[in-house]
Design goal:
By secondary structure, this protein is α/β, with parallel strands linked by helices. The chain has ten helices and ten strands. It has a domain at about 1-75 and about 185-255: Rossmann fold. The longest helix is centred in the C-terminal third of the chain and has 19 residues, at about 235-255. The two termini are about 35 Å apart.
């Protein structure tokens, strides 16, 4: 079943002196429970498209639907996880993860218990009374993930959430996020510059060209890799073949 549908989306940034086309003729559909990646050079409109999906900006033309509802006429139930964790330093970890529920008026004993259980499931049992400065960067990103999932979003948007972390922590979080989203059967869109990350975590990869941003090519990740964890997928020979295919396409896009 189609969860997210993007129909002929175009977007321009206008100033008093110029008009810049950021996105042109974007068409794609994402199925429920699917994990896809947007990959491409800087300036290709990946984050702009993510912002349009989130309902933060309106496209110049075209439309986006989630579960068949146009996001222009409703408030989408979106979870957004960014490169920075944006935890409030004066609030405890428990207060941080419950904030989204509180703002939405959805904080009950049941939703609180569910959020705290998720915190335990991702290995952060006993940190609820601590403050963000008392946790490592990787632990804070895990807290950010719990806060995002606590509102039970229809779609999870991930805008380079691991790029500020060291490589070992990044790999561990890839494993954790992939497993968690699979367990909760969440639909997710990842924006990344990392080819390996896109392959290890996605079922499909949309490769964007820049100026204006277009979908240049779509890669389907082989089923053998999708049965493996992100760490295991990186060790498989098929991973290397796909990596080189995407690398060559990306190199050609950047050359031209």
């Amino acid at each position: 079943m189609t969860k997210l549908h993007i129909q002929d989306v175009q977007h321009m940034y206008l100033t008093t002196k110029s008009a810049t086309t950021a996105l042109e003729h974007i068409n794609l559909s994402i199925e429920e429970g699917e994990f896809v990646s947007f990959l491409g050079p800087s300036g290709c409109g990946k984050t702009t498209l993510l912002s349009i999906i989130a309902g933060l900006i309106e496209p110049t033309s075209g439309f986006v639907t989630i579960d068949g509802e146009n996001i222009g006429t409703s408030v989408p139930n979106i979870g957004y996880m960014l490169q920075q964790d944006y935890l409030f330093p004066w609030k405890t970890i428990k207060e941080n993860i419950l904030l989204g529920l509180e703002i939405r008026g959805q904080l009950t004993d049941k939703t609180e218990s569910k959020a705290l259980l998720l915190l335990k499931e991702i290995g952060l049992q006993g940190v609820g009374d601590l403050y963000p400065h008392q946790l490592s960067g990787g632990m804070r990103q895990r807290v950010a993930l719990v806060r995002t999932l606590a509102i039970d979003p229809a779609i999870l948007l991930l805008d380079e959430p691991f790029s500020a972390l060291d490589f070992q922590t990044k790999l561990k979080l890839e494993e954790l996020v992939s497993k968690t989203l699979m367990t909760y059967q969440k639909t997710a869109v990842l924006v990344t510059h990392d080819i390996g990350e896109a392959i290890a975590m996605s079922s499909r990869i949309f490769l964007f060209s820049a100026k204006p941003g277009k979908i240049a090519k779509t890669f389907t990740v082989p089923s053998i890799l999708r049965t493996l964890s992100p760490f295991e997928a990186r060790q498989h020979p098929v991973y290397n073949d796909l990596f080189m295919d995407i690398w060559k396409e990306l190199d050609q896009l950047e050359t031209h």
